[in-house]
Write a structure and sequence with these properties.
With about 375 residues, the chain is of the alpha/beta class. It contains 14 helices and twelve strands. Strands 1, 2, 3, 4, 5, 6 and 12 form a seven-stranded mixed sheet that branches. The two termini are about 20 Å apart.
């Protein structure tokens, strides 16, 4: 059985997740994994680029090459001396999103990490640029993982919701009734605001285990104000990113409170926006399975359990897939779909007019 590799770098911009997987008809087997840190200098340039209103085309070109080299390095480190590139059928590379504007008058999305470099340096056929074909078909180009969730996690016995808490949080609603459609959409901030606030006040990349936020108290005035953001009330399909949810968004209202109370309030914003989305769009869900970095945050997991007290909240580990690697595995699966000439999008999630084969193929 041929292997596939999935490469994912999310809105946190801290590392590239690389997963070597094999697929059967009903399951995915993680063969090897590797987390490849994004060097501080490149990360700083990425963060500067995504927050600017005027962009430097020269910097964009340099970052595209730098991220392509980084994705290639992550792949080679994943394989190391244990696996031969000849055993890998393809790499699926999401790329690093630097701008996502699905609701602009001329919708567009931009992911960097030159796949030509990945294919050339690794000697492995690379599939990339997954979002834009969906957008060409009238969709938002995101979220793309609901199609993978549907293929891997759907049950005929239980109404399920799969929640990915990355920088941005998204849910996939999986009804037990096979005649009922799947839904999937971004709910709002996951870790992105929590991480940004921790970097500002702790000089650390994250609030590990949510401990700092747990030491504070929720500021209800701030929470109520942030929840008036129109994105939360926008019906799906919808997707978002750091273009909206960033420190500038926070600072539109006076934050006259201690840093730890702000962190506690940001955690509750993540919990409340997720819970409201589930309550509004999931019909009597019995199970919530969480993946992404947020699955390792006890404060978020406990907060979700309290807020959604009629739903079992668990990790996707209980479904056989480590929550850290679900997104990387999803892009390996999307590469497989592309090479087999099968659609990779879920129009119910992205808003596309029809299913389409995603991505461009860069031969080894």
């Amino acid at each position: 059985m041929a292997y596939f590799i999935g490469l994912m770098s999310g809105t946190s911009m801290d590392a590239v997740d690389a997963a070597l997987v094999e697929f059967s008809d009903t399951s995915v087997n993680l063969i090897a994994t590797h987390t490849h840190p994004i060097p501080a200098g490149i990360r700083q340039q990425l963060e500067q680029f995504v927050t600017r209103t005027v962009h430097d085309i020269h910097q964009l070109g340099e970052l595209d090459v730098a991220m392509g080299q980084l994705f290639a390095e992550a792949t080679l480190r994943l394989l190391a001396d244990k696996f031969s590139p000849s055993h890998v059928r393809a790499i699926g590379s999401h790329g690093q999103t630097v701008f996502h504007a699905p609701r602009h008058s001329t919708p567009f999305t931009l992911q960097i990490g030159d796949p030509n470099i990945i294919a050339e340096r690794t000697g492995i056929t690379t599939v990339a640029d997954f979002r834009r074909r969906d957008m060409a078909a009238g969709g938002q180009g995101a979220p793309l993982v609901p199609a993978f969730h549907n293929a891997l996690f759907r049950s005929r016995d239980h109404n399920r919701v799969v929640l990915n808490i990355g920088g941005i949080a998204n849910i996939t609603v999986l009804p037990a009734d096979p005649q009922q459609p799947v839904q999937g959409f971004d709910t709002g901030p996951g870790n992105t605001l929590l991480d940004a606030w921790a970097r500002c006040h702790l000089n650390q990349p994250m609030d590990r285990d949510g401990r700092w936020g747990a030491s504070g108290h929720v500021n209800q005035r701030l929470l109520d104000h942030w929840l008036t953001e129109p994105f939360f009330a926008t019906p799906p399909p919808k997707s978002s990113g750091r273009e909206l949810f960033n420190l500038g968004w926070l600072e539109q209202v006076g934050m006259d409170d201690s840093p730890e109370n702000i962190q506690a309030t940001l955690a509750q914003l993540t919990i409340e926006s997720i819970a409201r989305a589930i309550e509004q769009y999931a019909d009597q869900p019995e199970e919530l399975f969480v993946c992404g970095g947020g699955a390792h945050n006890p404060a978020l997991m406990e907060g979700l359990s309290r807020r959604l007290n009629t739903i079992q909240v668990r990790s996707t580990k209980e479904l056989g897939l480590n929550p850290t690697w679900v997104e990387a595995a999803a892009f390996a699966w999307l590469a497989k779909q592309t090479l087999e000439g099968k659609p990779g999008n879920l129009p119910e999630a992205t808003g596309a007019s029809h299913p389409v084969i995603l991505g461009a193929i860069y031969p080894a």
